[in-house]
Specification:
The structure is a single chain. The protein is an all-alpha fold and about 220 residues long. It folds into three domains: about 1-45, Homeodomain-like (Arc Repressor Mutant, subunit A, Orthogonal Bundle), CATH 1.10.10; about 50-190, Tetracycline Repressor, domain 2; about 195-225. The chain is about 70% helix and about 0% strand. α1 (about 1-15) crosses α2 (about 25-30), α4 (about 50-65) packs parallel to α7 (about 105-130) and α5 runs antiparallel to α7. The radius of gyration is 23 Å and the shape is elongated. The termini are far apart.
Amino acid sequence: MRESLIAAAFQLFLERGFEQTTIDDIVALAGVGRRSFFRYFPTKEDVVFPDHERCLTDMTEFLQQQSPDGDPVAHVCDAARLVLRMYGENPAFSVQRYRLTKKVPGLRAHELSVVWRYERTLAEYLRARYAARPDGTLRADVIAASVVAAHNHALRSWLRSGGRGDAIKDVDHALDYVRDAWSEDPAGRGIDGRDDKEDVIVLISRRKAPMWRVIQGIEAALDEA
C-alpha cells in the first residue's frame, strides 16, 4: 500500500504538478482511503521523501555501533554514505524527485529540514566524541556541516546529470576533503595521494633474490616501523 501511494502520488505530480495534486487525488488513484494515506505519511510533502526516516534511523544505529577507539571523522563520513546508498537504490526515482523538488519551493524547504536532521545526527555523535575538548562542540558542528556539504555537493551533481556517472566515487572524493582537513588519524589523510614518511618503505635487494626473501625484508621493515 505504501509503494502504491508513492507511485500514485508521483504519477499525479508529474501529470498535474505538485500544488495541483491533492491527497484525495492520490488516494483515489491508489484505490485506498485517506486514513490509509495518513498511516504512512503525515503530509503530502512526506510522500516525496518516503525513505528519509528509515535512513535517519539507520544512521543513528550505525554511529552507535562504532568503536569509541576509531576515528570519529571516518565514522561520520561512512554514516553519510548511507544516504547515498538510499538514493542509489532507485536512481530513476531519485532523479525524478530531485527535478520535482527544484520546481516546488515548499519541497525545497522540506528537504532542507531533512538535511538539517542528518547534520544534527552527525553533530550529536561528534559532540559526544569530543566532549573532553574545550572546543568540542564547535569542532563537532563544523565537521558535521562539512560532511553534509561535501556529500550533498557530489550527490546533487550526480542527480543533475540524470544519474549518470559514478556517484560512489564522487562522494568518496568529496568526503576525502573532510577527512584530509579534520581527521587526526594519519591513515585518513592525504587526498592528493601524498603518504606520510612513516608509510614509505625503501627496500634494496639483489635482482636475483627469491620473492620470499623480498617479502620477508618488507615484513621486517614494517615490524621495525
